[in-house]
Amino acid sequence: MGMGNMVDYVRTEFRTFDRKRFSAVDSLVLSELAYIRMPATVPAFGSARSVATVPIWRLLQAEHYGSMFCTGSEYDAGRHDLLVAMAESPRFRGLRVGEYAQRSDERTETQFAAVTFDLTDCAGMRGDGQPAPTLYVAFRGTDNSLVGWKEDFNMSVRCPVPSQTQAVEYYRSIDERASSPYAAHPARIALGGHSKGGNLAVYTAMQTQSPHIARIFSHDGPGFMREVTQSAAFKAIEPHVEKTVPEASVIGMLMSTVSRYDIVETNVSGIMQHMGLNWRIDNGEFVTKPELSPVSRLLDRTLDAWMEQFTNEERARAVDQCYDIIASAGYTSFAEIADHMGEALPAIAEAARKTDEATRSLIVNIIKALPATAAKSLFEEWSDETGSRTRTRRDEQRQ
């Protein structure tokens, strides 16, 4: 078993859970699986008195793959490979999947999805002598929809946002039904997610303080407004949060976060380190680094300084303005914008030119995440315009 990513880990990790206990690597695997658009064969959230699930192999139906892996991301193929590897794996093939919820609403600026994994029948999971079922509630991170991106930015100006409220409601339903008279024993439940999903897991644990929550995982999940992390509810669960971030983390360092986290080496650079499929795993464990990269630390300080200089009301206006500019192209997702870059960028550029320099700079940084060469000329144009004006002002000041 050599170094690789999570797909390599699942393909080569033959130890069952009595020989290698559930780890943060396993949590990342399940968090990544939560990005799949589950087919109708997976029971919908709240469809039964008890927690309803089906075996993972029931997801291996090729006629559904077009809708299951439809984000337009290069990571769709990696998630397909992950699903197949898990169904074949002696460690994961006893996994059951259910209670799938997915909601997106532009009006309320909400993007939420969650799924519950039942590990009880995975080989070795009962090896600790505990008869209770073992569940993992996975909250999906942000998809590439504009409304999902907008909700993430809303987290910087208000708490809770709709997806946080829905995450708490989802967990309470799972907990109640898993611990109901119809269940032989109260379940042991782990919460986790990648990106925004990690934030939802931490928020849910903080709000419920449930004794049935066994572990809490956040994989490069953003933090919270400072008043939240200073609350007694947050401080009560903070020591139990198992957070992992890549060495050049940006998302996971946003806002105020937990004080302890593990830093993971990746096989890429820049913002793509955020994607869990790029994290390095060796012998069943994350390959760790002693500290964040200088770029990550600089961005963390810069973003914090930017956030601190504005009131909540000012940040809210800036977020709304940024969203309106990007949405001016008429597309609903970043994938659509990338596919129609020739039409989208002129509309975005025209809307952005009508704003102040600070907002225009923020838009440039957002669009930089899109994998399109056509965008680069626009970045350079805006940067040159901004730089030219700055140099002109400096020259005038010297004269």
UniProtKB/TrEMBL annotation:
InterPro entries: AB_hydrolase_fold, Mbeg1-like. Pfam families: Mbeg1-like. This is DUF2974 domain-containing protein.
